Amino acid sequence: MAQAPARAASAVRLFDAHCHLQDPRVAPVAPALIRAAAASGVARFAVNGTSEKDWHLVKRMAEDHPAVVPCFGLHPWWVPERSPDWMDSLRRFFAETPEAAVGEIGLDKGSRGRTIDFREQVEVFWRQLELAKELERPVSVHCVRAFGDLLEILKQTGPFPAGVLLHSYLGSADMVSGLANLGCYFSLSGFLTGMKSTKAKQMLKSIPLDRILLETDAPDALPKLDNVSVSPVPVHSSDADTEKHHKDSESQAATASNESLNHPENIHIVLKYVASLLEMPETELAELSYKNANKLFSYPGSKVHPEAGDI
Ligand SMILES: [Zn+2]
């Protein structure tokens, strides 16, 4: 009798719901990172563009790698340097790439975001939320210290039947139900290791089980845990633009070395940490977060297809 092929080392399957493999700090080794992560059970990677400058890189990466789900969006940090026809350009990418989702877009009142006119951030965010609704695609949202504004804007523009992915969610437990009612999913990354564990636990336990996602936000959000060692990205830190492309964390130093760069295989560390706080078996959390991501990203035109049992 024919034997099933040996399974990958890991018995779990995972979906990295938000990362940036087009980032110049890791782009040269992205194929190797994707291969290594895939061998460990990571079946999909939602790769998010952040500005007009990198959308073409995301598009090409998705063409080269069947496992990459492309996402196009203008991140709040790059709002000041948008071109006058940024929205036309964004629409063109969606027209040419029917499998794309929207992201990364958002609001930021953190140390970096405070330097960027908030009214402009809101306007750019709003227009992209409307676009996501019009295209009926999920949208990946960055929110730093602006959850009150986010909830208000989502209430006014929502609901979002195609779903909103709150990436690297670090908001409070109290915010969860209001956001979930508007169609939000809560995507957890290595940044969670920087939150007090009692607070993180309370927040995690307030998330409906069908709204939990896992992500790496690679090359950012390297998980930092005392007893866990992470494998470095095999690149040299001579890449230019390190600071320019550093996103999502306010506190990161601009001088990233290889050791501080994250990569998708580290999603296993996020899985382990979140499972421990939720007091849930890792295999169960892997499967439910995979199914949630698969459902969210299986919109018409997507590379991702609904699984049996999903509606
Ligand atoms: Zn991101």
TrEMBL record:
Keyword entries, A-Z: Metal-binding
Annotated spans, Disordered: 225-260
UniProt cross-references to InterPro entries, sorted A to Z: Metal_Hydrolase, TatD-like
Domain of life: Eukaryota
Sequence positions that bind a divalent metal cation 1: 18, 20, 104, 217
Bias-annotated ranges (Basic and acidic residues): 238-250
Coiled coil: none
Binding site for a divalent metal cation 2: 142, 167
Identification of the protein by name: TatD related DNase
